[in-house]
Fold this sequence. Notes:
Layout: H1 9-22, E1 29-32, H2 34-41, H3 48-62, E2 70-73, H4 79-88, H5 93-97, H6 100-108, H7 117-120, H8 122-131, E3 137-140, H9 145-162, E4 170-173, H10 201-210, H11 230-238, H12 241-252, H13 258-285, H14 287-315
Parallel strand pairs: 1-2, 3-4
Helix pairs in contact: 3-13, 4-8, 4-14, 8-9, 10-13, 11-13
The structure holds adenosine monophosphate.
Amino acid sequence: MRPTGRLHLGNFFGALQNWVSLQDEYECIFGIVDYHALTTDYGNVDQIGQNVVEVAIDWLASGIDPQKSTIMVQSLVPEHAELHLLLSMIVPLPWLERVPTYKEQIRQLPEKDLLTYGFLGYPLLQAADILIYKADAVPVGEDQVAHIELCREIARRFNHFYGAVFPEPQAKLTRMARLPGTDGRKMSKSYGNEIQLSEDPESISKKVMKMMTDPARARRTDPGNPEVCPVFDYHKLLTDAQGRKWVTEGCTTAGIGCTDCKQLLLKNMLPVIEPLHEKRLELEKDTDQVKQWLVEGSSKAQGIARETMTEVRQAMKIEY
Length: 320
Ligand code: AMP
């Protein structure tokens, strides 16, 4: 995850919750990718250091366990940058130019000048982040599948030129890849439609109560369609079958209003989030310990990255 600030519900329900359960099944490496933050925020770097700590606190509060998994900061393992450079020699420019999110992001963030070398290369940096650990699986949402495919193509091209060094990683799809924000668009900091995981229950409740619903349901007496309602996406994650049936029947017959539906959602959502707040408060009191875990995790990750880079340099005949 990029250190762009405190995490929001999209990060939590779309990625983090899944990561927490993967820890028992896989040997996981989770990275806070500060070089990636620079690809879009190179003009505003004051917050990056603090944001790294905020992301780590959100992870730890959510149940990422440094005893089970490796948590690392990308720039503390500069081998990522070396692999990125070496891979950049073999990646044809059109492979990067045709990545769907490239043009889309440039369009969506006109206030940032993203026509830079670094921004074009960010899917390649992602590939380096994955390949340097010879990862088998990468937990991502649907929108990242094209990037994993690109990563596989890069691995194949490297192996073709220099011999079999990299395995081809598979995308491990998460359940909810596009959790909507308060305005119905994908929840994202850049849209300003996010609800932060660390917000207090009153603030979360206020935002949920104001959240956009089925736009065709203008009045309480109009029937609605849960399938187009952003609030129902949350019910799919948080409400049991019986509750969802109550919502669906009530909404489609105008038997319940949006307020009733949202109250049920909050009743199911807040107990999931509130325990995280307590853990967060504890972690905030000891940020030195949090930083220590990041340094230790990065050092462990660097051990693996160095081994891979030795192989890469041998394969590319640049060892002396
Ligand atoms: P980002 O900081 O945008 O790179 O997001 C970090 C992680 O959170 C990635 O795995 C994203 O797929 C996930 N994520 C971000 N926003 C959302 C969202 N609105 N819904 C679901 N997952 C999201």
